[in-house]
Amino acid sequence: MKGDKNRSASERLNAKTLDQMFVNMVEQGYECPPFVSNAILETAKSVFIPEQSNPTVMNVGQLKVLGIAASEPAGKPLAKCEMKTAVVTLDAGKEDEEIRSKYGLAALRQARLARVAHEAWDQGVSLTQEDIAAKLLNCGVRTVRRDIKALAKRGVIVPTRGQQKDIGPGVSHKVEAVRLFMERRTYTEIERRLKHSLTAIKRYILTFSRVAYLTEKGYTTKEIAFLVQVSERLTRDYQALYRKYKGDRAYKDRLDEILALNSVDREPCKRGATN
Fold it and tell me: Domain tally for the chain?
């Protein structure tokens, strides 16, 4: 038994060593940041060790929902609409706990509402307010409508069935968080305004930094979405935001600060740590 444990520990150590050797070779050979080399590593694993990359396995807190295809026009009878499935995150763990403890249950419900609606939309699914109320948030439709209005006042538009035709898919909380940061708001100010997790806000800004970095390097939207592991729609939104502020010299210092996050992200891998 002890020998089995030792072999298991040894195998894990060897795997980590090989993983690090692979990402180091990619970074040194192609001069790319750690998040790109790690994306390449995971892709290689999914091809050569497919059992370790099962796309049907969802993360804790996620579930699969059924909704109307986002391509279906408003007003079309539901019985004639194409239906699709999407994987959404109902419980984001620590991030949701941060929101609940700081801002209460209503803020948590609103954060989940915005998150599941945008995640579904990114996957080509348009959820109805009834879907979200009854199947996901376990509340009344009136509550969902009230939450949607509250989110709109904070600059976040929730893409639910029937309203995209008039106002489009909306601005996600992720894009709004980055926009506020570009406008020189502090992390704390953004957190209070959006009533969102500080951990998540920092992650959105780092993701935006990576999208901007790869955009400057000439990668396509599809390639960036794959490397950064976000949807193509969010990638396009971040690219549009980047180009907007890139053209304004008044924001050069703030943009440089954000882009520098990639340099900070690069350092640990040079010392042999994992990303």
Answer: 3
